Amino acid sequence: MSTRERIARGARIVVLAAVVIVGLPFIHQSFVGIPVTVNGAAVTALRGVQVGDVVQMCGGSTECRILSAGTHTEITRRAEEPSLLLVNGALMPVTTPVHRGDDIRTLDGGGIIEPVLEETRTVDPAPRTIGRGSVPKEVRAGTPDVLRVTVGALSGEVVSTETVSPGTPAIWRMVPESGANLVALTFDDGPWPGQTEQVLAVLQERGVPATFFMLGMRAERAPDLARAVADAGHLIGNHTYWHVNLSTAGPDVALWEIEGTNQVIANCTGLRPTWIRAPGGNLGGPARGYIAQVGMRHALWTVDPQDWNDAATPEQVAWGVISTVRPNAVIVMHDGGGNQASTIAALPMIIDTLRAYGYEFVTLDELPEVRSDW
């Protein structure tokens, strides 16, 4: 053997020895177990095994009963799904690899409650509806409830629900189908504390939508009441701020009376009026021009029971409507401007009688035609 060959052979031996020396601890560790606990007892598991193998090695069963977090009924699992064990406090499949220090527990006996998860969900509140028609018309969009929901991680069963922030229901008017005999109730000069609430109560009890022509100064003094009218699903119109005569008011005053009132009502209710009724129905001179300039629709009336007359009895107010009403009639009444006790008392009689005659109530938006000129 030449000197070169002897040197090469010696180098291979040195390298082999180094590999053995360096790799021996790793080879040894592959056969040395790792410490875990099974049902509180310390055991040693081989590397690479699964938690189910360790349990079976200790004589335990990998079959367990998992109970739902809400009703504590047994959760039925598909046959092909692996069994579950508690590993470090969490339900894990029996196929989970073992790691150093794992706390493994079998689930023999009465079973274990599934873990729970928290979710954030949004749910739309049930809409508020008004009217007795069959065609729903959304007049205000709602906002959803935000909920914190605790559910079973396996069953999906709802355990508890907490409202994080409440939403607002959408408002729908149920509009009669075309061809029905329609009539619109309108109320002027509110909102008037102590009276508007009573009018709203009668309308709500009978499911009747109406149109309220509000004064800006009254809405500004009773913003919560103005909001209550809108929240009940009624249509809100503009009746100027101070109940001025638009036919004699100067341009600056008239436009402020209209636009200022629109802004007040929008601030109170979140709704900007598209209808206006000139106080007294005064449309002479430049009044129509002012209304056209702001792009609003004007509404007069076809039935006036003169409920503003303090001497009028409830029966007289009711008969003043019932005796003159026709299909597509616009009835003018008042929830403000003075004592309207007769109007409030007459209102149930008017509604019940007209319905008995085949009429149904809508807002001005749902009438096919609204009187706008004398």
Helix content: 25-40%
CATH domain class of the largest domain: Alpha Beta
CATH fold topology of the largest domain: TIM Barrel
The CATH homologous superfamily of the largest domain is named Glycoside hydrolase/deacetylase
Uncertain segments of ≥5 residues (pLDDT<50)? 11-31
Q: How do the strands of the widest beta sheet line up side by side?
A: 2-1-6-4-5
Query: Number of helical runs?
Result: 9
Q: Report the oligomer.
A: single chain
Whole-number total of structural domains: 3
Beta-strand content bin: 25-35%
Rounded to the nearest angstrom, the radius of gyration is 40 Å
Outline: elongated
Summing up helix and strand content along with how strands pair, one would put the structural category as alpha/beta
| Mean pLDDT level | 89
CATH architecture label name of the largest domain: Alpha-Beta Barrel
Q: What is the distance, rounded to the nearest whole angstrom, between the alpha carbons of the first and last residues?
A: 131 Å
Per DSSP E runs of 2 or more residues, the count of β-strands stands at 20
List the helices and strands in order. HEEHEEEEEEEEEEEEHEHHEHEHEHEHE
User: How would you characterize the largest beta sheet?
Assistant: 5 strands, mixed
